[in-house]
């Protein structure tokens, strides 16, 4: 009997609902013995391996994986519980020379690395979709548009730390890797037809080789609504409350937003309540919050209130790059003219190539080049500068002529 998936429905037809994995829902691997069987099966498999991970964002502290899904020809699908099997390095080793197929790889690679799994070669179906010019690049949209199947996506935001995991969630997780390799093959063909496959392979190699990102400096500055807080003393309150919340969330292993909302932090910073009674009257610190919690938050506010002026945070974070582009016309009209010309050139080329501007060249790279251009404006020097800023060879080949010309732009005469 021929599986329907072997003759994919054309994307122009109504999508066919994909309701069950072709071999059924596999048992969850949750013991050393079961993991050893999975390692052996995937070592004996062939071709690329589809990989996915589910986290508990919004429920738990951090971004650890709570389920890892894999599929490979000859091995079938595996669902691994990384709580019970926290060391997957043996699996990573047998797949070391295998191409991994992931969707939005940069989202899953950090939590997979924590488990001992790091790909040497990968294919990112989301990034491939962007480079191929697809308007919608979510996994469901890509599978539907490219392969003609409709994935059920109702469980993407559930609490994957739940144990035992309900069967509908496991079915959803297995289906997430069911067609990833099929999608990869179709996108490789499409990219080849468009003459973009080498570009994609350079991008995938850069992702696989990238070192772990450094810890974020002053992560409390990303508090939602922070733009409303302008005085240094108020900013100090945000910092103290954010840090107190982060410690509590880490200790309890819950998402920080479930401990105290960003909106509550900003409100407290703006209102500067003098005591627990006043704090309890503010939105986000209502009747559900116990006295002990309220005292904890008030203590953080009091610490900020007691800080000497020299220890208060600056209104803006230290930054080594160029200033915000809106300030360029006043600070450096020549730089503003260069940036305007460069943006127009990049936009036009991106539209011609049918890919997002940010994938043609990083906006930050363009800003840095325009703010501090090399002293010698030759294609060779501009190309070298782009390389030092992290641009890939295919990007450098395409944009060097445009940017070299843009760097000679001057402000219009009035």
Automatic annotation (TrEMBL):
PROSITE patterns from the xrefs? HRDC
Q: Where is the HRDC domain?
A: 231-311
* Superkingdom of origin: Bacteria
Q: Which InterPro entries match?
A: 3'-5'_exonuclease_dom (IPR002562), Exo_C (IPR041605), HRDC-like_sf (IPR010997), HRDC_dom (IPR002121), HRDC_dom_sf (IPR044876), RNase_D-like (IPR051086), RNaseH-like_sf (IPR012337), RNaseH_sf (IPR036397)
Question: Region (Disordered): which ranges?
Answer: 1-22, 308-327
Checking PANTHER family in the record gives:
RIBONUCLEASE D
| Name this polypeptide is given | Ribonuclease D
Origin species, per record, is: Actinacidiphila acididurans
Output the lineage of the source organism.
Bacteria, Bacillati, Actinomycetota, Actinomycetes, Kitasatosporales
């Amino acid at each position: 009997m021929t599986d329907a998936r072997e003759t994919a429905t054309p994307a122009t037809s109504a999508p066919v609902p994909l309701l069950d994995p072709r071999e059924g829902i596999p048992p969850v691997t949750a013991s050393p013995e079961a993991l050893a069987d999975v390692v052996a099966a995937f070592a004996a498999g062939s071709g690329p391996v589809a990989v996915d991970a589910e986290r508990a964002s919004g429920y738990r502290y951090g971004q650890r994986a709570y389920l890892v899904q894999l599929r490979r020809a000859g091995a079938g699908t595996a669902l691994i519980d990384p709580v019970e099997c926290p060391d997957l390095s043996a699996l990573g080793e047998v797949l070391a020379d295998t191409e991994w197929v992931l969707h939005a790889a940069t989202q899953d690679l950090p939590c997979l690395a924590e488990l001992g799994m790091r790909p040497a070669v990968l294919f990112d179906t989301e990034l491939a979709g962007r480079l191929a010019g697809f308007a919608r690049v979510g996994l469901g949209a890509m599978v539907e548009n490219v392969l003609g199947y409709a994935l059920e996506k109702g469980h993407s935001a559930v609490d994957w730390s739940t144990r035992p995991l309900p069967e509908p969630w496991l079915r959803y997780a297995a289906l997430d890797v069911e067609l990833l390799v099929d999608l990869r093959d179709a996108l490789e063909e499409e990219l080849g037809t468009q003459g973009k496959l080498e570009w994609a392979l350079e991008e995938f190699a850069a992702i696989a080789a990238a070192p772990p990102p450094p810890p974020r400096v002053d992560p409390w500055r990303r508090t939602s609504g922070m733009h409303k807080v302008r005085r240094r003393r108020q900013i100090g309150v945000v910092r103290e409350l954010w840090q107190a919340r982060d410690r509590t969330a880490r200790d309890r292993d819950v998402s920080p937003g479930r401990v105290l909302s960003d909106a509550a932090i900003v409100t407290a910073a703006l209102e500067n309540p003098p005591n627990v009674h006043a704090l309890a009257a503010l939105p986000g610190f209502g009747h559900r919050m116990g006295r002990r919690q309220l005292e904890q938050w008030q203590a953080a506010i009091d610490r900020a209130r007691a800080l000497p002026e020299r220890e208060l945070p600056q209104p803006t974070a230290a930054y080594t790059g160029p200033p915000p582009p809106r300030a360029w016309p006043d600070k450096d009209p020549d730089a503003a003219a260069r940036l305007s010309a460069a943006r127009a050139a990049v936009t036009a080329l991106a539209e011609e190539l049918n890919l997002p501007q940010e994938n043609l060249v990083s906006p930050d790279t363009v800003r840095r080049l325009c703010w501090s251009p090399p002293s010698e404006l030759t294609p060779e020097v501009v190309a070298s500068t782009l390389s030092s800023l992290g641009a890939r060879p295919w990007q450098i080949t395409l944009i060097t002529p445009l940017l070299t010309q843009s760097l000679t732009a001057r402000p219009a005469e009035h």
